[in-house]
Amino acid sequence: MTFALLFGTPTFALPVAETLQRTSACTLIGVVTKPDEPVGRQRVLTAPPLATWARECGARCWQPKTKVELTALLRELQPDVAVIAAYGRFIPPEALTISRFGFVNIHPSLLPRWRGPSPVQAAIAAGDAETGVTCILLDREMDHGPIIGQERIPIAPTRGRVALERELAERGAQLLERILPEYLAGRMTPRPQDDAQATTCPLLARDDGRLDWREPTIVLERRIRAYEGWPGTWCADDGGRRLKVLRATIGGPTSAAPGTIVREVGQFGVACGDDRTLILEIVQTEGRAPVPGGDFLRGYRGSDHLPCAP
Fold first, then answer.
1. What is the pTM of this model?
2. Residues of the chain whose pLDDT is less than 70?
C-alpha cells in the first residue's frame, strides 16, 4: 500500500484532496496546511480551507509553524509520496528525500512559463492565449523540477482570475488522477524543464493593484481581470479616497488627458494613455457595496480628473 500526504492551503487544494481520498493508487493519510490566521477587519482567527475540509470529512490535519516542525512531521509520518497544491510555504531541502517517491507539485501554469507565486494572475495580465497545469517533481529551486504531466487550457478574453483558477484546480486534480498511478508504478520518465524558456512572476502586494491611467486600456483591462479578488485593482480620487474597480471594458477613442472622467451615455469612462477610454462597469468605495459605474458617477461630487499613479 502506498501512503500519500497532501500539502495545501487555499480552495485550490480541495479538488486534489478529494481526488487523493478516492483514488485506488494510494491512501491519503492526511493533509498539511498553514496555521490558522486572523482574517478581516475583526481579525478573526480562521482556518485555511484545506483544514476546514479535513475536519468536515474526518481526515487528519497538521499545521506546523516552522520548517523544523515540518521536517520532524515528515520523518514521523514517512509518507511514500507527498503532493503539493498551493501550500504557500517552501519545503526544506533536507525534507525532499524523506518520501520514497518525492514531492509531486501541481502548478497552475505551463511550466517553465510563469514560475513563481502568482502564475494565474501573470498569464491573464500578459494576455496569454492559453495557460494550464503542470505536475513536476519538487527540487531545491522554485518550480524548477522535471515535468511528469501537463495539460493546456485556453484563456477566454473575458476570463477573470477566480473562474480560471477554479478551472485550473479541477484540471490539476484530474491530471494528477491520470498520472499518479503511472508515476508510482515507475512507468513515467520525468522531462527536464527548458530553463531558457523560463519566465517568473512575483509575490503580489496590495499596492500592485493601483491603476495608472497613463497605461493603455488593454493593459488595465487585463490587470483588472488578473487581480480579481487579490490584490484587487483600485484608483484614487482627488481627495485620496480609494475606489475599487471590479470590472471594466474598453471603450471608444478620446482626446482627453489620461485620468479624465469621460461621461459616456450614463457610463463611467476614464481616459487612458492610448487615447481610448476604459469603462468602469462595477466599482466599490470603502465600506460600501459594489455598484454599476454609471450609478456611482451620478452621485459623484469630486473632481473630473482621477490622479495617475505616482
1. 0.95
2. none
- The DSSP-derived string for the chain is --EEEEEE-SGGGHHHHHHHHH-SS-EEEEEE-PPPEEETTTTEEE--HHHHHHHHHT--EE--SSHHHHHHHHHHH--SEEEEES--SPPPGGGTTTSTT-EEEEESS-TTTTBSS-HHHHHHHTT-SEEEEEEEE--SSTT-SPEEEEEEEE--TT--HHHHHHHHHHHHHHHHHHHHHHHHTT----B---GGG--B-PPP-GGGGB--TTS-HHHHHHHHHHTTTTT--EEE-TT--EEEEEEEEEEEE--SPTTBEEEETTEEEEE-TTSEEEEEEEEEETTS--EEHHHHHHT--S-SBPPPP-
Please give the pLDDT value at position 19: 97
In the chain, CATH 3.40.50.170 sits at 3-197
| pLDDT reported for residue 69 | 97
Provide CATH code, domain 206-298: 3.10.25.10
Kindly report the CATH number that applies to the domain delimited by 3-197.
3.40.50.170
